[in-house]
From TrEMBL:
GO cellular component terms given for this protein: plasma membrane; type II protein secretion system complex
Species, as recorded: Marinicauda algicola
Domain Type II secretion system protein GspF, first and last residues per copy: 74-196, 276-398
Transmembrane stretches, start-end: 169-195, 226-244, 380-400
Superkingdom of the organism of origin: Bacteria
Protein name: General secretion pathway protein F
Family statement drawn from the similarity comment of this UniProt entry: Belongs to the GSP F family.
Gene: gspF
Length: 409
């Protein structure tokens, strides 16, 4: 019997590696599923896995499903499965109609595994970058409860809301981005072309230049002489940051730093709380038991410190603690959300209370984004206007001093 090496998420949401024996890769995946583990990588022992090697930035990752593609596929699956079409036929129909080659390739692979007998959630595991763990967990909950089409419908609604917010931010960022680039071009032209010419005029005169003027001339000379090295250094910095951000220790440190910032930390807490509430609402409504729903919601988080708190919540719930008490003990979630969850526990409407909490928090996040975007444009104008003012002042001060000396002479 062949052996298979695997990397999977255990029931607590932690990555684990191991070796198991099975008749085929499909049987190995089923065994991992029986152990309540979500496979991320699976290959025969001794063979080089397709994803082996040093992790590179997503810029160099193979093409997969983009958020808009995943949203469209989810909505179509919900409609077709809800109409009574078998899962493999629904996936195949969407794949055949897909215009993008990567989407068609991924869906045909998923359909092939479903045809071989795998569940849809297990078939999606081969393309973990296209179907995130929490997405697969929600699909698995829907398969287990018999309400797959309803789960997919809720998932599509959630993805559409997230995509709409991203689009709104993108559209709102166009004008500030153009304004920022234009301001940088103006500052660059002043520093590289205007300041050096004026500096040549002053160096021929026996006059002590103001400190701000000398600083601007020195900065201008540095930019002219070292612009290539500056560009290379920035590229290397971005590349290093992309690679290091994939290391758990570095990511944890960055997550902690973000949370410690006054406004941004509170904003991140709101985002994570809203995502957690929305995920829990979908999973509980789909029939998932509470510990499994918490584990899946934990995987949906992008913040390591938040994941640690949810792990403590899972432990407390499994030991018999109430969910609202466990959430309150983390000191992360807003008091109103904890109160709503406690109300849902008493009334037996936990999924509804999570949904209402998610709507409330999502409205807060949307409002915070609107305020931030409204402040961004004047902020850019003030900063860039200040830079231009400093450059102009460094040019005018020597001229005014020369005029004063001429009038005094």
């Amino acid at each position: 019997m062949p052996a298979f090496e695997y990397e999977a998420l255990d029931p607590a949401g932690k990555r684990t590696k191991g070796l198991l024996s099975a008749d085929s890769e499909l049987a190995a995946r089923r065994e991992l599923r029986r152990r309540r583990m979500a496979p991320l990588k699976l290959h025969r022992a001794g063979e080089k896995p397709a994803t082996a090697g040093v992790a590179l930035p997503r810029l160099f990752a193979p093409a997969g499903l983009k958020p808009a593609d995943l949203m469209s596929v989810t909505r179509q699956l919900s409609t077709l499965i809800g109409a009574g079409m078998p899962v493999e036929e629904a996936v195949g129909l969407i794949a055949n109609q897909a215009e993008k080659t990567p989407v068609r390739r991924i869906l045909m692979t998923v359909r092939g595994r479903v045809t071989e007998g795998e569940r849809l959630s297990d078939a999606m595991a081969e393309h973990a970058s296209s179907f995130p763990p929490v997405y697969r967990a929600m699909v698995a909950a829907g398969e287990g409860s018999g309400g797959l089409s309803q789960v997919l419908d809720r998932l599509a609604d959630y993805l559409e809301k997230s995509e709409a917010l991203k689009r709104r931010i993108g559209v709102a960022m166009i004008y500030p981005s153009v304004l920022g680039v234009l301001a940088l071009v103006v500052v660059g032209v002043l520093m590289v072309f205007i300041v050096p010419r004026i500096a040549e005029q002053f160096t021929s005169l026996d006059v002590t230049l103001p400190l701000i003027t000398r600083a601007m001339i020195a900065l201008s000379e540095f930019l002219q002489a070292g612009w290539l090295w500056i560009a290379l250094a920035l590229f290397a910095l971005v590349l290093a940051a992309s690679v290091l951000s994939q290391r758990p220790g570095v990511k944890r440190a960055v997550d902690g730093l973000v949370l410690s910032l006054p406004w941004l930390g509170n904003f991140v807490r709101r985002i994570e709380s809203a995502r957690f509430a929305r995920t829990m609402s979908i999973l509980i409504a789909s029939g998932a038991v509470l510990p499994d729903a918490l584990r899946a919601a934990r995987r949906a988080s992008a913040n390591a410190h938040f994941q640690d708190r949810i792990a403590r919540v899972i432990e407390a719930v499994e030991q018999g603690s109430g969910l609202s008490d466990a959430l309150r003990s983390t000191q992360w979630f807003p008091p109103l959300m904890v109160y709503m969850i406690a109300s849902g526990e008493r009334s037996g409407r936990l999924d509804d209370m999570f949904a209402r909490a998610a709507e409330h928090l999502e409205a807060e996040v949307d409002g915070a984004v609107s305020v931030g975007l409204s402040l961004l444009e004047p902020g850019i104008i003030i900063v860039m206007g200040g830079l231009v003012a400093v450059i102009v002042l460094s040019i005018l001060l020597p001229i005014l001093r020369l005029n004063t000396l001429a009038m005094g002479g």
